[in-house]
Design goal:
alpha+beta, 3-stranded antiparallel β-sheet, 3 strands, 14% strand
């Protein structure tokens, strides 16, 4: 099974906001290991991370979480091609968020 090693900080924030998240398979001091399977939970984790990155300059006091979200996107990718489904309404959001990653 393919897995992702992602920063704990963004993942914890994501869960604290009552958002669905992929199951944690393993844990290190600073990272969680999650499944790389494209699930609705991974889609939500990715879309919120993209939002944080795009809104980063406007999120006062959240630099650490924004940096962690950016690191998460570097691991899981910003390409939602496997998860793009018109019912999610996320296809148009991707192009705007990619600018925030640069």
């Amino acid at each position: 099974m393919k897995t992702y090693r992602i920063p704990k900080r963004y993942y914890r924030d994501h869960v604290e906001c009552d958002c669905e998240a992929p199951e944690i398979l393993e844990e290190t001091k600073t990272h969680y290991i999650i499944s790389a399977e494209e699930t609705p939970e991974l889609l939500e984790l990715r879309s919120r991370a993209l939002f944080y990155v795009s809104e980063g300059p406007y999120m006062n006091g959240c630099a650490g979480i924004v940096a962690s979200a950016k690191a998460t996107i570097k691991v899981i990718g910003d390409d939602m091609s496997q998860s793009q489904n018109p019912e999610h309404g996320l296809r148009d959001m991707v192009s705007g968020y990619r600018e925030g990653l640069r």
